[in-house]
Write a structure and sequence with these properties.
Blueprint: E1 4-9, E2 14-20, H1 22-33, E3 41-47, E4 54-55, E5 60-63, E6 70-77, E7 80-88, H2 89-104, E8 110-116, E9 158-159, E10 176-179, H3 181-189, E11 199-208, E12 216-225, E13 230-231, E14 236-237, H4 240-253, E15 258-266, H5 278-287, E16 294-301, E17 304-312, E18 323-326, E19 328-330
Length: 342
C-alpha cells in the first residue's frame, strides 16, 4: 500500500474517498521539472512543524493532520536526484488537489484532507472547531497605560539621479534595485553549499527617485553571509545573534549602510513558475517588514545560477503575504540585467 490522500466531507469531516498522491506531486512539480517529472519517483520526509489554516480558493481545503504540515520532497529520475526542496503540505499536495476537486466535484465548497499510508498511522487527526451561527466575539477593554510608544517616521532618503546613471524611463512598480558588478559576482560565484540552504543580508543605501514619486532606489553595496543561523534543508532562518553581529559590522564599517533585505539559496534550477516558497514568504513578511526591503533568491542549477529579487506588494495591490519580482540593474559599465543572470 502506498501513501495516498484521504478526503473528508464537511461539516463533520466524515471519510469520503481516497486519491492517489503521485499524480498530485507531478502536477505540483511539473513547472519546476518539466517532462522529467513523468518518469520521476518521489521520497517524502514529513516534518513535525504545524501548518494550520484553510487553503483559500474553490473549493477551500483544510489539512486534518496539521501537526506534520511540512515535507521535504526528493525527486529521483534516471538514477540521480533531480530535485530536493521543502514545501508546506498545503502547497505541494493541497493546491493540486484543489484543482482536481474543482473539476471532479464542482458542487462541493469545502473538503478536509490528510496523508495516509504505511508509517503515518500515528499522525494526529484534528478536526477544526466548527463555526457557530450567531456567534459574536467580545473583546474586553483594557486600561490605557501611562506611557505609550510610537514608531518615529523614517528620515527621507537622499535623492538619486537615475537618468544620470543611464537608467531613465524605469516603469515598474516597487523598488528599483541597483547592484555593482563586484557585488553581483558575490551572488554568482560564492561557494554555496549544495546540501543546505544558505543566506544572509543585503546591505547598502536607500535612495529616492525624484522622477518617480515614492519610488525607493536600493543601492546594494555588499552581501553579508549571516552567522548563527538555523540552516537545514527544511528552511533557512535568522537568529537574534545574526542581527546583533550584523549591527556590529555596520557600525564598524561606518558607511551609513542599512539592511536592504536578505538573500538565500534554493538547491535547484530556477523556473518562471516557481520562485519564493511559502516558507520564504512567511520569513520575509515577519522579519523584513519595511515595505521597500527585498528578498534575493539564488537558484543553484547544474548549468549555472540565477539571481532574482522580490518585494512584498503593498495593501491594495495584493493579498497580505503576496510578493512580486523586482528586476535589477547592474551599474558600473556592465550591461543591465532583466532580473536573472545565469
Amino acid at each position: 500500500m502506498s501513501v495516498e490522500v484521504e478526503l473528508f466531507t464537511a461539516p463533520d469531516y466524515t471519510y469520503g474517498e481516497r486519491h492517489a498522491l503521485v499524480p498530485l506531486l507531478r502536477d505540483a512539480l511539473r513547472p519546476v521539472l518539466g517532462a522529467v517529472v513523468d518518469r520521476a519517483g518521489f521520497r517524502l520526509s514529513l516534518q513535525p512543524v504545524d501548518d494550520e489554516g484553510t487553503l483559500d480558493g474553490t473549493p477551500s481545503l483544510v489539512n486534518l493532520r496539521p501537526g506534520h504540515g511540512y515535507v521535504i520532497v526528493t525527486a529521483v529520475a534516471d538514477g540521480r536526484i533531480v530535485y530536493r526542496h521543502p514545501h508546506t503540505v498545503r502547497e505541494l499536495v493541497g493546491r493540486p488537489l484543489q484543482r482536481h476537486l474543482a473539476r471532479s466535484h464542482p458542487d462541493v465548497a469545502h473538503w478536509g484532507y490528510g496523508l495516509a499510508g504505511p508509517g503515518l498511522e500515528k499522525l494526529a487527526f484534528v478536526k477544526p472547531v466548527p463555526a457557530v451561527e450567531g456567534q459574536v466575539e467580545i473583546t474586553a477593554g483594557r486600561r490605557r497605560g501611562i506611557t505609550r510608544l510610537e514608531e518615529l517616521p523614517e528620515p527621507e532618503p537622499d535623492p538619486i539621479d537615475l537618468a544620470g546613471l543611464g537608467l531613465s524611463g524605469v516603469q515598474e512598480d516597487g523598488p528599483v534595485v541597483l547592484i555593482g558588478p563586484d557585488t553581483l559576482d558575490q551572488f554568482l560565484t560564492q561557494g554555496f553549499s549544495m546540501d543546505v540552504e544558505e543566506g544572509g543580508f543585503v546591505i547598502g543605501h536607500r535612495r529616492r527617485d525624484p522622477a518617480g514619486p515614492g519610488r525607493d532606489v536600493l543601492e546594494i553595496t555588499d552581501v553579508v553571509p549571516a552567522r548563527s543561523t538555523g540552516a537545514s534543508l527544511l528552511r533557512f532562518t535568522f537568529t537574534g545573534e545574526s542581527f546583533l553581529e550584523l549591527a556590529n559590522l555596520l557600525a564598524s564599517r561606518g558607511r551609513q549602510e542599512e539592511v536592504l533585505g536578505w538573500y538565500h539559496t534554493h538547491l535547484f534550477a530556477a523556473t518562471d513558475e516557481f520562485g519564493l516558497s511559502s516558507i520564504d514568504v512567511t520569513l520575509h513578511c515577519s522579519t523584513f517588514r519595511r515595505p521597500w526591503q527585498v528578498a534575493a533568491l539564488v537558484n543553484l542549477g547544474r548549468s549555472g545560477r540565477t539571481l532574482r529579487f522580490y518585494h512584498a506588494l503593498p495593501t491594495g495591490k495584493g493579498a497580505d503575504g503576496t510578493m512580486a519580482p523586482v528586476p535589477y540593474r547592474v551599474t558600473g559599465g556592465r550591461p543591465g540585467a532583466d532580473g536573472t543572470s545565469e
